[in-house]
Sequence to fold (292 residues):
Amino acid sequence: MKSMTNVDIYTICQELNDLLVGARVDKSFQPTKDTVVMRFHKAGTGRLDLVIQAGKRIHLSQYPLTNPQNPPSFPMLLRKIVKGANVVSVEQHNFDRVVEIKMKKEETYTLIVELFSQGNIILLNESNDIILPLKRKHWSDRDISSKKEYVFPLENGINPITLTIDEFKDIVTGGEDEEIVRVLATNGLGSLYAEEIMLNTEISKKTACSALSAKEINVIFNSLKSVFEPLEKRQFKPMIVNNEKEVERLKLENPERKIKAKEDVISINLSQYEGFEVESFESFNEACDEFY
Fold:
């Protein structure tokens, strides 16, 4: 199962902010070790179940999950502290794979959802101190445990919405002899979108950053902005794509050929998936619910 990309999280947060702001927090559950379900009620809408899987996904779901007979401590604490609170906002932190859900009761609480690596779900108080994490973790620069101040992970990526040409030039210059596609991928865009950006240019993706001319850097920057323009304009096209039929055809032509079918859930059109079977959805939440 793929983890949500920065782009997926951007889209899902836009939708969740529209859907959940003003909703009242009801019960919380923990069906599996890494998965928490928060139930909300919103006037005029009714029940909304938010599935959060640390390190993987966050979206509304219509599919019920089986809960243990005895609830673990984390959802019990959520019930005790934030049940009855109202959602204030759902935001992505700096185009990173981190979501902040703010809820207001006697004070404002923040639920941090980390969707990178093994992930985490962390409840903070108004002072940004950790009340309880789903998983206790410790690094030299971060301590995810109760009563410690929450520190966001170091920012390591491009925000394509706000990126300027000067910032982009600095990133490319810093790439030195690395391939441009790799520099794009490792600066928060991931391989899928790095490939898409380069596919829309006539420049080899394997070109070393140091070998790119000023004109070529501008071409790549313009391609990047073009790829992500639908995000800025909220022109989402939620869909699940797969090439199973094409793979079956190729295997019939050459049974010895080893090729795997690919399936993905995306929120904007990508040239790489031209020719794939497409199932479109009204919202990205619905698409993710079916995909996961």
Observations:
- The mean pLDDT is 95.
- The first strand starts at residue 24 and ends at 32.
- The radius of gyration is 21 Å.
- The chain has three domains: 6-144, 165-232, 239-291.
